[in-house]
Amino acid sequence: MPPHEILIVDDDYAFAEFSTMLLESIGCRATAALSGQKALELAVSLKPDLILMDLNMPQMSGLETIRRLKAAPATSAIPVVVCSSVLENADIEAATRAGAAACLRKPLKLAQLQAEIDRALGPRP
After folding, report:
1. What is the pTM of this model?
2. 107: cis peptide before it, omega within 30°?
């Protein structure tokens, strides 16, 4: 069975690299997009199993990116997990309304990340 393909969307290159290493350590394949627009393009071409999305990004916010992903037939079924350092109740509610499956607070913890991936996609044998 092939590894889960995860798309990381974050304008912070260091966080994207850190997340890539975390995901690869648990047997996933990871690709990073440093903008919402690039995420929309990669979501269509890569067809990832799951998307990790930052909320605070320039040009196109994470919320707007989630809304566009969920509105497009080609990407609407891809689960989105929000990863943000600022997660107030209002942010969590807005992300859930936009279509996010879950919200995680940065810095990511490996066990928590693995649990959300398993919850969204099912554990790998």
Report:
1. 0.94
2. yes
| Number of other residues whose CB lies within 10 A of the CB of residue 41 | 12
- The two tokens of residue 111 are 């066990």
Q: Do residues 4 and 29 make contact, with C-beta atoms less than 8 angstroms apart? A: yes
Residue 19 CB neighbours (<10 A): 23
The domain over range 5-116 is classified in CATH as 3.40.50.2300: yes
pLDDT in tens, the chain (125 residues): 789 999 999 999 999 999 999 999 999 999 999 999 999 999 999 999 999 999 999 999 999 999 999 999 999 999 999 999 877 899 999 999 999 999 999 988 899 999 999 999 986 65
